[in-house]
Description:
The complex is a heterodimer of chains A (352) and B (297).
Chain A: H1 2-11, H2 16-37, H3 45-53, H4 59-94, H5 106-120, H6 129-154, E1 156-157, E2 160-161, H7 163-187, H8 190-201, H9 209-228, H10 230-236, H11 240-245, H12 250-272, H13 278-290, H14 294-319, H15 327-351
Antiparallel strand pairs in A: 1-2
Helix pairs in contact in A: 2-4, 2-14, 3-4, 4-9, 4-12, 4-13, 4-14, 5-6, 5-7, 5-8, 5-12, 6-7, 6-12, 9-12, 9-14, 13-14, 13-15, 14-15
Chain B: H1 2-17, E1 29-32, H2 34-42, E2 49-52, H3 60-63, H4 77-81, E3 87-90, H5 97-105, E4 110-112, H6 122-132, H7 136-158, E5 165-173, E6 176-180, H8 185-192, E7 196-197, E8 205-208, H9 210-216, E9 220-224, H10 225-231, H11 234-238, H12 247-250, E10 254-257, H13 259-263, H14 269-280
Parallel strand pairs in B: 1-2, 1-3, 3-4, 5-7, 5-9, 9-10
Antiparallel strand pairs in B: 5-6, 6-8
Helix pairs in contact in B: 2-6, 6-7, 7-14
Amino acid sequence: MTESTIAAAEDSAVSPVAVILPLLVVGAIAAFLISISFGPIPITLGEIIAALTGGPVDAMLKDVILDLRIPRSLMGLGVGAVLAVGGTAMQGLFRNPLADPTLIGVSGGAALAAASFIVFGASLTFIPDSLRLYAMPFAAFIGGMVVVLVIQRLAQRDGRTDIATMLLAGIAVNAVVMAGIGLLTFIGNDAQLRTINFWMLGSLGGSGWGPFSAVGPVALVVVLACLSLARVLDGMMLGEREAQTLGFNVEAAKKLLIVAVAAGVGTAVAFCGVIVFVGIVAPHMIRLAIGPAHRALLIGAALLGGILILLADTLCRLIVAPAELPIGIVTSLLGAPFFLALLLGRSRGLGA
Amino acid sequence: MMHRRSFLAASAALIVARPARAFAAPQRIVAIGGAMTEIVFALGEGTKVVAVDTTSLYPWRAVAPLPKVGYLRQLSVEGILSTKPDLILADVDAGPKDVLDQLQSMGAPVAHFHAAHTVESVAPKIRFVGEAIGHKAEAETMVEGYSTDLKAIETTVAGLTQKPKVLFLIAVGPSGLRGAGDGTAAGEMIGRAGGTNSFAGVEGYKPVSPEASLAANPDYLLMMKQTVDEIGGINAVAMLPALAKLSAAKEKQIVALDGNYMLNFGPRTAHAIRDLAAAIHPDANLPALPERPWTTT
């Protein structure tokens, strides 16, 4: 579909952006509707409308629609958008198509903190039970931020952030973080091990209005913050010095981008675990379709990220119902081959 | 249509309004945890079980075709609700906690059993299930039988003079061995059966280095039958490079018991202790325990 749409768009001199972005908006709405319509409990569209409008509907179904499916789907949109925008921003910042938020240590730091909480949390008896549900996401968020700041400090050279050093420092610190998680899986008992394992594969299963009230606003702010830096990111494609001569405050932009991505992805990971590949697939697919200009790219990636997560999550709920599959398995399993096919198709097209 | 809906809504409200512990004669039970499932079936209410978790493996033929709500620590609210349960029987490990809370608040009554996995937890567990499914008298009979059997095997074990060293291996693979230390179900069973846990002093299930296993020099290797079958039988296990040097492997002193039978602390636990004790004390000629309805399914 996209290939022919793009070709058609280019032929008729209509900007692909004008075609793709509206399509993505429609796609996101469709994905949202699909994700609230399908689950292990069969629910009809009529029942969804009734639940939303206060019409007559079975009380249990109403709870399922209003307290499980809708917050979960909103969560999916938010998390998908944040992961994809984070990936786009990191690829722009590092001028590297393989960059994603993992590289600056957000996911790793969050995972390490979460794993620590899983193993040692029970001994932190001062945490009241009512807050326990949020204590782990909070720890994960802090862990992600701390690791990002450490990597960022390590990459400071004469008052500016050296991107190449940051990349290498990121790899080194991530290795330390992974060793920490490894150590925790050794210390932990079987139950904790299973929990860490599930968490590392990601799931929207813990969604609800509470978690969404944290993820939603953060996602919105982060997407807007990255959008506000779209032109700097465009400038940085030429090189940092070039962007500087174009009049951008590159250092400030870098710091803001890193903090925004860390906060956004940190929050997403904190509630949903590590969901891989969306941060790479979504921006690349959009870049192939509409080119590298960041404003449209960020918007497109955010929408596609949301679509991918929603569809993947719907599959997770259906494939092994009444059990649930971790979403990371689906995003990798379906995302990677699709992505490869897209890349191969593209390069062959260019070679011919 | 309207009538059905409002009736459903009304009945849901009724269930919520009832006191939490009065689950009079539930008709659609979701059993979470191997022992929970086993007890429900043993109390004769197996036909009312509509779904189980992935650790529920006994009675196998009855449980296998049932829908699985996933691993007991990673349950999903909607998945369980989709089986329309009127009772969710959850063993201590079931979770996450917010999922159980959410189920309860959505009108699906949850009976959550809280007691660590020990031989002593079995009787309260049987009573708990009996009360939840309205079979108190049958549960009491079962507890009596279980307690008699447990006392019998405890007396027998107390009379044994030898305490052979037993190493339980939960995993034997290319990445090494994983043994059961203190605070594990396997460690508890070894002690109850009159053995000494070779891997005592370590907490939980931990990797054992080949050297450490040689140094421990266990008299018996204990494994789940499932693990042994995967490897290809006792002889194949004895020939594994990681084990071949052990005298227990050379002498084929390898005991394989069904994982659920041995480790889930249900009504068959007394029999499992007897079987393990008999296997590691072959010269003692331990008497068999009487067959019970719940051991012969």
